[in-house]
Amino acid sequence: MNKQFVVDDNVLSQQRYSDKTIFVTGGAGFIGSNFVLEWLAKNRGRVVNLDKLTYAGNLNNLESIISDPRHLFVQGDIADSTFLRGLYLKYSPAAVINFAAESHVDRSIHGPEDFIQTNVVGTLRLLEETRAYWQGLSVSDAQDFRFLHVSTDEVYGTLDPSDPPFTETTAYAPNSPYAASKAASDHLVRAYHHTYRLPTLTTHCSNNYGPYQFPEKLLPLLIANATQGKALPIYGDGANIRDWLYVSDHCDAISVVLAHGKVGETYNIGGNAEHRNIDVVHAVCTILDELHPDSPVIPHAKLISFVKDRPGHDRRYAIDASKIRAELGWIPRVQFIEGLRQTVQWYLQHPDWVAQVTSGDYRHWVNKNYEARSKA
Ligand code: NAD
Ligand code: TYD
Fold first, then answer.
1. Spans of the chain below 70 pLDDT
2. Residue 164 is part of which domain span?
3. Which residues line ligand 1 (CB under 6 A)?
4. Domain of residue 112, CATH code
5. Active-site pick, 77, 102, 129, 153
6. Pocket test for ligand 1, best of 30, 82, 319 (most atoms within 8 A of CB)
7. What pLDDT is recorded for position 14?
8. Model's pTM, two decimal places?
9. Which among 349, 360, 317, 356 is positioned nearest to 154, based on CA atoms?
10. Closest to 357 (Cα-Cα) out of 220, 218, 226
11. Overall domain count for the chain
């Protein structure tokens, strides 16, 4: 049966939360801010957006909705139980979507502590306060409540070229401190469902790209560097493979899982778009040659520079998204090349956003991560 209507109309998810409040954690980051903007644009209900505003959180992402009465931004930490308790008392959400995390693999290699603190301790405290709140709800509100945890495909580890893609039953084998911390948080979410019956949902998504992504991740880093005539660093031989999903497709998938997912289940989300890093870099360069011919170095591919590999670099990720397609009718809508073009265009049209996020601390990070990587 074709259930594509779920995504096309958003009828059910709209009805479900239209007169309710949801909590979004990490809603000033890349995916969280895209999600909040889309949730409000589609009139799905009110959002309390709680975010610690780490280096990755950016209120400029939310500029267009800052005075929207359906959106309330609150600065705070998911590891702060007192803060969370107060928010639950005040706003009585019908659902929580947990995006808040330390999210960059390279930073987790340089310093894993923050990842344990937010991704593990933070998720535990959030679960604990959520449980206390949920146990105080009426029977019908408790039944309707959802805790959706946004996880990653990286918890499954790495694939060889001929391996089948990750399914929801693939064994966990996290290889980076980031992936290990996300795996730990997934296990806590699972345990809260099995032990306390908290109505949880967990999603595992592949690499996202699109507007508002912080330029420490591959795609926005390439665009920012290429337009300034700076080197385009490729780790190792560039043959590592990622599956790429345009961020709005991920946001749609989360809304669908929230409205229709089966409590206690996990759902893999992917773009069916596996590409080698080197091919992605060439694709970005080709688009930039056309859209930004005034860059200091043309063609942009001249800037490609192979650098020392990331330690423990996972070779390949691939997602089998047949469960979410078969059970909930979700499929990705944006083709990779089309999404890449839109992404490049967005960054070219938002030089102020890029300038703001790449000032200050960003430079320290770039020095720390790239200076020690002599050319391969
Ligand atoms: P991001 O780093 O851009 O944003 C994370 C946000 O969380 C930031 O706004 C930050 O300020 C906030 N935050 C960090 N620590 C916090 C804390 N202790 N309390 C409250 N807020 C805190 O990350 P992203 O790329 O938007 O990823 C969002 C989620 O999606 C993460 O859980 C990540 O693991 C998951 N995910 C990301 C991808 C991807 O490709 N980016 C893919 C799959 C899953
Ligand atoms: P990244 O965007 O950091 O996401 P993840 O590590 O979560 O997949 O990296 C995507 C791929 O690009 C990954 O294989 C590492 C590689 N990469 C580079 O080759 N050069 C870079 O400067 C960065 C940041 C990543």
1. 1-14, 374-376
2. 3-211+244-273+317-333
3. 25-26, 28-32, 51-54, 56-57, 77-79, 99-103, 118, 122, 150, 152, 182, 205, 207-208, 214
4. 3.40.50.720
5. 153
6. 30
7. 57
8. 0.97
9. 317
10. 220
11. 1
